Amino acid sequence: MCLIAEIVHTCSNEKVAQAAVASMGSDFAGRVQVTASAYGMTIGAFTAKTVRQFDRSVGEEQKKDLRAIMRGSDQPILSGLHHILQPAIDTETSV
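Given the sequence above, the corresponding structure tokens read:
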């Protein structure tokens, strides 16, 4: 299974998504929590929704870029998830 497909498959589950974000450290998890709360969601629900939206909306070029980022990482799944979530967090904090 492709690593991006693995992220989508696993992190579409709210509990898995929440655990994955928690494993990325308290600073990042805290930023996701702030954004999720702004939408009235839990970390897991927000992350799962963001991952599903990413899967549906991005083009092949963006997936290619994500694969390149993941390929150079010690933890490619978490690195990919971070990259997927970062724009959603940035959007909320800039509003």
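DSSP finds six helices and no strands in the chain. Try to locate this feature in the token string yourself.
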